[in-house]
Amino acid sequence: MRLHLDGIIGSSPALAQVFDVLRKVAPTDSTVLVTGESGTGKELLVRALHRNSRRAEHPFVPINCGAIPRELLESELFGHEKGAFTHAVRSRPGRFELADGGTIFLDEIGELELSLQVKILRAIQEREIERVGGTGAKKVDVRVVAATNRDLEEEVAAGRFREDLYYRLNVIPMHLPALRDRGPDIMELARHFLKRFCCASGSQLSISREAEAMFLSYSWPGNVRELENFMERLSILCETPEVTPQDLPEKIWRDVGEERPKPELPPAAPAGFVWPTLKDIQERKLGMKEFLEEVEDRLITEALDLADGVKNQAAELLGVKRTTLIEKLKKRNRM
């Protein structure tokens, strides 16, 4: 069976094991529990599971159980009847009904409160749901896939997650490895993201071997999401055509156990502050406007370096508003 893996990038042995399970479980209707740290790409894996299933032509309906207020989550999951509560001016189907024939993805399932866990268990076992304010059950034909970054066995032991629901969800466990355990995938993903962001900005940027070695040694606690955001930042702030170790933030240097080399300092200037003179302008063959812009540009670059690229902090160091700094960066095509 050929897998459709749009959006999932990597060929490491750890990811190959995940693909092997995906290939076997996708054609079935078995309930799947996907685990892994935050940012590893669990939703991409679940979407691939649906796309490679017999339900691929039917709806894929995701819901983040941790992002919706508890008092609204039951209605979102199971729907409600007109008049079931204040503002329920008409009947409304829930996500289980919308996913009929397809797949429902219960993301962050570990955030569910116990009362809703009972209803989820019934929906999985009996293949039926009851709307809030309803008087009868509705049959639904859905495949349930759940995901969490919590250890549900620990949650069960602590009494925060029902044991029967855990075993009902964990029919087919799939674990997405952390990025630090995926070896060569790190650079494959880094280059993919960098190419995408550079294409958007019309620039070109490569990664030096020295920087690549640090990428592979860094632990990437935020996983693929952190890597993607970091490559976007480099595509904007890197001023040379090649990413070098000097372009990497202090936290990467600390994490890999190395000390960033101190930059070579220019010859010592006379003690105290020295105002620029006309001679300085003339030596650089600049007009006053261009000279002042060069001074301002150097100060902005230094502030961004000290603030690790965080614009709010850089603006504070410069004593200007964040909006003022952003306008200056746009003027210099550095956004």
Properties at a glance:
single chain, 335 residues, alpha/beta, five-stranded parallel sheet, two-stranded antiparallel sheet, 15 helices, 9 strands, 10% strand, elongated
Describe this structure in words.
- The chain has about 325 residues and is of the alpha/beta class.
- The protein contains 15 helices and 9 strands.
- The chain has helices at about 15-25, 40-50, 70-80, 95-100, 115-125, 150-155, 165-170, 185-200, 210-215, 225-235, 250-255, 280-285, 290-305, 310-320, 320-330; strands at about 30-35, 60-65, 105, 130, 140, 145-150, 170-175, 205, 240-245.
- Strands 2-3-6-1-7 form a 5-stranded parallel beta sheet. A two-stranded antiparallel sheet has the order 4-5.
- Strand 4 and strand 5 form a beta hairpin.
- It starts with 12 loop residues before the first helix and ends with a helix.
- The model has no long low-confidence stretch (mean pLDDT about 90).
